[in-house]
Design a protein that fits this description.
The complex is a heterodimer of chains A (about 350) and B (about 260).
Chain A lengths: L7 H26 L4 E5 L3 H19 L2 E5 L4 H10 L6 E4 L1 H9 L8 H4 L14 E13 L8 H5 L8 E4 L2 H11 L12 H11 L3 E5 L4 H7 L5 E5 H4 L5 E16 L6 H13 L3 H10 L25 H4 L7 H6 L1 H13 L2
Parallel strand pairs in A: 1-2, 1-3, 5-6, 5-7
Antiparallel strand pairs in A: 3-8, 4-7, 4-8
Chain B lengths: L1 H21 L8 H8 L2 H32 L3 H12 L6 H12 L4 H8 L13 H26 L2 H9 L4 H29 L3 H6 L7 H11 L3 H33 L1
Helix pairs in contact in B: 1-12, 2-12, 3-7, 3-9, 7-9, 8-9, 9-12
Classes of the chains: A alpha/beta (about 350), B mainly alpha (about 260).
């Protein structure tokens, strides 16, 4: 029998823990002093980050005098690092719907005080115990204006009648549902996902996929460079772009969230909740939507959006009902299996 | 002693932490290593990474040696120009240089448009978004790491040795093969190992020029750490990578010692 207390691993782990707590103890002192006139936010960056600045942080800073420093991109790893060392540098952290589930399971999040947030009316799915959905975005089909437009995932898969190279996300959370839709599965029957059928469907198209993209900026660039003729893209990156066609039909609608890391101080939490309040104000959301064509969580937003560009926004009456919402719980429960099969699938290339 | 301790902490604490995590849990366990072996995908990505690193290293060796040799033959003024041309790209970010390859080698890029304009090809050649693209990008970025030390070593070779060989009647070919080349092997090998090890950890270039189709270990670790997050498995993979790299380093030491031994 191995005595757990005497193994090298435990000794190293204990030494590490000791070193870690030393670091935490010394830096905590400095953080506690310097935070009231400034907090840090972790978010996705790019145009999305600028829309947060324009829509929500400007009114927040005007009201409270607290400056917000944005840091990007967010990652579950950074959040976990913060919580495990006990040094909460970022009072408010963006996560996608799957990462919210993962963070909840690892106990990385503070419960939100909805009374302190005091929200204006928002969609149901945006209001959770430990997360507030702040921005809807879509994963949709897009194409070069000089290629034959597609109107369904089955057509997107049909390389004979719609010839050209494809670009698909390097994220199984998007490609697997799309592959099933292309294979004829009805949106309401998607979950639980039939993994075998999804990968079989992907096998059919992978010879025509030039790029499995990682960054949202890639698909519009690949389309413009004529590297691919069809791409799966995030709506805000292609909507309103010259030379690119797109449709919200059967697109995957999703919601990005903001959360508060477990262990945040009372002042940090108070500031984070005030920012979250700004995220429920329709006028602020309209200002954010001017920067990037993603939309906020308010059901009353539509009349405030630029009416000539209504078709670019994922949550308008017309667009929201033709899209499909994900089931983050399923993804969370199957994350490891999916990731391994995904890597195996790509290795077979 | 205190300084040694400080060095150990400053340089190796993160590595110790990682080693600890790879076998941690509630008690000592090898389950993460077991996972690594049971799900063959991780080992295959490791193997693929070593393959790409080997190809890139070979490409750097094939291009780098003649280049350094040619630079050695230049007059001192021109040598300065040549060295600055090799060093110049160091001041440009890796990201920028990687994207530059898209402009050059893409379907609508300079090379393909020229070839199509000349009527040599009908469809654009797929340079990018596969292993070839990764190897081109990596070789471009890492070539100076091989050329500079090699060039420095070549300059240090005593010209009188070569003259002596010539005066004893050796033809140029023999002088090169039996005198000059053996003297450059240690630095040539050192440069190659340096390139090889740097390629193992390459992230940006494979991510962009590989088009997600060339799985490399650094990109997989990023997924495991930031997206999953499965730090214990990532630590186990990193440990395997570290051990294999150290083995390669030991092998290289044996080789260079052997080559130095033959000279004495």
């Amino acid at each position: 029998m191995i005595n757990p207390a005497k193994t090298p691993a435990t000794i190293i782990a204990r030494a590490a823990l000791f070193a870690g707590s030393l670091v935490a103890a010394t830096s905590l002192g400095t953080v506690a002093h310097a935070q009231l006139n400034e907090i840090r936010m972790m978010e996705a960056g790019g145009a999305s980050g600028e829309s947060i600045e324009e829509g929500y942080l400007k009114p927040f800073t005007e009201k409270t005098g607290i400056k917000v420093v944005r840091e990007s991109p967010w990652s579950l790893g950074k959040l976990r690092g913060m919580v495990e060392t006990g040094v909460i540098t970022n009072a408010i952290v963006e996560l996608d719907s799957l990462a919210v589930e993962q963070a909840k399971a690892l106990n990385l999040l503070e419960p939100l005080d909805w009374q302190a947030i005091d929200p204006m009316p928002i969609f149901d799915e945006a209001r959770q115990e430990k997360a507030i959905g702040y921005q809807y975005y879509s994963t949709l089909m897009a194409w070069r204006a000089d290629a034959k437009p597609v109107s369904s995932w089955a057509e997107f898969w049909d390389v004979e009648n719609f010839p050209g190279k494809r670009a698909l996300p390097n994220y199984p959370t998007y490609t697997l549902p799309i592959a099933l839709l292309a294979d004829g599965v009805k949106p309401e029957d998607l979950y639980p996902l039939d993994l075998d059928r999804a990968f079989e469907s992907l096998e059919k198209i992978k010879g025509h996929v030039s790029v499995w993209w990682d960054a949202g900026a890639q698909p519009p660039q690949l389309l413009k460079d004529n590297e691919v003729q069809y791409a799966v893209a995030w709506s805000g990156r292609v909507a309103g772009q010259e030379g690119i066609g797109y449709t919200f039909k059967n697109a995957l609608l999703d919601l990005a969230f903001f959360t508060v890391p477990r262990g945040a101080s009372a002042e940090q939490k108070a500031a984070a909740f005030k920012i979250m309040h700004e995220m429920t104000v329709p006028e602020n959301q309209a200002a954010a939507a001017k920067v990037i064509s993603y939309t906020g969580n308010s059901p009353d937003l539509e009349p405030l959006l630029p009416q000539d560009r209504l078709d670019e926004f994922p949550t308008t009456q017309a667009n929201k009902q033709v899209q499909i919402l994900p089931e983050p719980k399923w993804w969370f429960e199957n994350a490891d299996l999916v990731e391994e099969r995904w890597q195996e699938f790509k290795l077979g290339l | 002693m205190p300084l040694l301790l400080a060095m150990l902490l400053a340089f190796n604490l993160p590595i110790l932490l990682m080693l600890g995590r790879s076998v941690s849990g509630l008690e000592f366990s090898l389950e993460h290593y077991q996972r690594l072996v049971e799900a063959p995908v991780y080992l295959r990505v490791l193997a693929n990474t070593f393959k790409i690193a080997a190809i890139s290293t070979l490409a750097c060796m094939v291009l780098g040696y003649p280049l350094a040799y040619w630079m050695r033959g230049l007059r001192p003024g021109w040598q300065l120009v040549a060295v600055s041309l090799v060093v110049l790209p160091f001041w440009v970010s890796i990201l920028v240089r990687t994207y530059a390859w898209i402009v050059v080698l893409g379907n609508d890029g300079v090379v393909n448009r020229t070839l199509m304009g000349l009527g040599l090809i009908v469809d654009p050649l797929p340079f990018l978004y596969a292993e070839l693209g990764v190897v081109i990008g990596t070789t471009n970025i890492l070539l100076p790491f091989l050329v500079l030390p090699l060039f420095a070593a070549m300059l240090k070779i005593d010209g009188r040795l070569l003259d002596a060989a010539a005066s004893l009647g050796a033809p140029p070919r023999t002088i090169f093969l039996r005198v000059f080349f053996p003297l450059t092997i240690p630095s040539f090998g050192a440069g190659a190992v340096l390139v090889f090890i740097l390629t193992l950890g390459f992230f940006v270039t494979p991510a962009i020029l590989g088009g997600g189709r060339v799985p490399m270990i650094a990109n997989m670790l990023e997924t495991l750490i930031n997206r999953m997050p499965r730090w214990e498995l990532a630590a186990a993979i990193s440990t395997v990578l570290l051990v294999v790299t150290l083995l390669f380093f030991a092998l290289y030491r044996r080789l260079t010692e052997a080559s130095e031994g033959t000279l004495r």
